[in-house]
Amino acid sequence: MRNENLRHADDFLSDYDLWMHQRYKELLKEVIPSFIYASEEDDPQVIGDDPDPDCAFWSTRWTPAS
Question: Distance (Å, rounded) from C-alpha 58 to C-alpha 66?
Fold first, then answer.
């Protein structure tokens, strides 16, 4: 399945991409109660109960070297 990527008109997010972002957030939350999850594909999200967490994670697309 293809999912429109509004930030990159020439790209799309696969179901795997969406699952991966969600899984990263779940795994991080197991060890860090509150953080900001930032990604190229979406606006930053506060994860957890603290509205102003001290920790942020940036998820970016990995592209193999050519």
Answer: 23
